[in-house]
Specification:
The chain has 307 residues and is α/β, with parallel strands linked by helices. The chain has 14 helices and 9 strands. The protein is globular and about 50 Å long.
């Protein structure tokens, strides 16, 4: 590990000790086939014309080094968020993710889906064979989460209680089906769906918090929210009422970071959460307790038992 990695590990360790955390559960990290990840990195390398400014990837190490970094930060469980942008990709990606989880015991086996014929069958297969969490990327996929092709799959996931991390907010760039409207329609049909709204729904924070207040199985992940990079374009209101709402949802807010595709050190996400001033109990729940309870994460490193 480089000196930079050692320094970052110590900074994260200091945060954990300060707050009293046994470890971290990060529900929003990206591991995917190498050629796919390189295309994702190329997308972010060109983010200047897309979002108006550069988006430098902080962690471009090889896969095993990135896993070691997360473990060094004290992350007890993480995900391999991956997603298709066209039909025919999801089954292949799910196969890769199953193999990655098999050789990486602290990874929560992740799967994905796309509105296409056969989606119900391969979602059913993924759940039956041990998928713990799904990723849906409405922005990149360019699809309506209410697409009738997806309806049986949502029903299956709701019945099975398998969480779905969904990028459905309109940041950093709006999509044809981003925003709270399509998600509200989806939840009206599947109110028991364990939906985890990625990025706290940025920039429509208040609207997605309202959905979490309405539906008891809706959760929010913190991915990049409150960080300097995001606050520049999509600031989260820190007025007393908004912070009180976020505090009240403290049992359904989960740590997410977007590692490795972030333009800042890993510790900055943690420090940004601490800067909200919501207290150590809230931080312990968000950074470990809520994710550990949702996914059944044990006390020992790498202990990620099945459902």
């Amino acid at each position: 590990m480089s000196d930079q990695g050692v320094d970052e590990r110590e900074a994260v360790r200091a945060f954990r000790e300060r707050v009293g955390l046994p470890g971290l559960v990060d529900v929003h990290t990206h591991f995917m086939p190498d050629r796919v990840l390189k295309k994702v990195w190329a997308y972010f390398d060109s983010a200047g014309p897309l979002v108006g400014r550069a988006w430098p990837i902080r962690y471009r190490q090889e896969e095993d080094e990135r896993v070691a970094l997360l473990r060094g930060f004290g992350v007890r469980a993480f995900t391999s968020m991956l997603y298709p942008h066209k039909p025919g990709m999801a089954v292949w990606l799910n196969g890769w993710a199953a193999d990655f989880a098999a050789r990486t015991p602290d990874c929560l086996r992740t799967a994905t889906l796309f509105p296409e014929p056969g989606v119900e069958a391969y979602v059913k297969d993924a759940v039956a064979s041990g998928a713990r969490v799904f990723k849906a990327h409405v922005q990149v996929g360019g699809y309506d989460p209410g697409d009738p092709l997806l309806d049986p799959a949502w029903g299956l996931l709701a019945e099975a209680g398998v969480p779905v991390v969904m990028h459905c907010g309109s940041g950093p760039v709006p999509g044809a089906f981003t925003g709270p409207g399509p998600v509200a329609s989806l939840l009206a049909r599947h109110p028991r769906l364990r939906l985890i709204v990625a990025h706290l729904g940025m920039p429509e924070y208040a609207d997605f918090m309202a959905l979490a207040e309405r539906y008891g199985e809706v959760r929010l992940d913190t991915t990049m929210a409150f960080t300097d990079f995001v606050e520049f374009d999509a600031p989260f209101s820190r007025d007393r009422e908004t912070l009180a709402r976020l505090a009240a949802l403290g049992d359904r807010v989960l740590l997410g970071t977007d590692f490795p595709n972030i333009p800042h050190p890993y510790r900055h996400q943690l420090e940004a959460l601490e800067s909200l001033g919501l207290g150590d109990d809230w931080l312990r729940a968000v950074c470990y307790g809520n994710g550990a309870a949702l996914f059944g994460v044990g006390e020992g490193p790498g202990t990620v038992p099945g459902p």
